[in-house]
Amino acid sequence: TGVQTCALPICGVGRARQVGNGAGNCVVMEGAATVCRNYAGGGFTDWYLPNKAEINKLYINRIMIGGFESTLYWSSSEFDGGYAWEQDFETGLYVHGYKTDVSINVRAVRSF
Fold this sequence. Notes:
Layout: E1 5-7, H1 22-25, H2 32-38, H3 52-60, H4 62-65, E2 72-80, E3 83-88, E4 94-98, E5 105-107
Antiparallel strand pairs: 1-5, 2-3, 3-4
């Protein structure tokens, strides 16, 4: 499907939260964002960790897209210095999690 799901930490995130701006957050990130940036699914190399608005679009369309678990997924949007936004793909609710939590899934996306 051209997407990857894996569990790795975010060590730094950005503040862009509008759809289409998530890639800018990933320039300063390590961990989960690096995995997304390095992903080459479908022969493409422009993958990134989605921001809060983009992860919500994935949640809304999760059944059509497929491959999601009913669990938390990182966004690249920062809550504050130590926390980033996550979205629960079972309930749709946002929570903030400690950036080094390695138990949270990530989903790489391309610009849309």
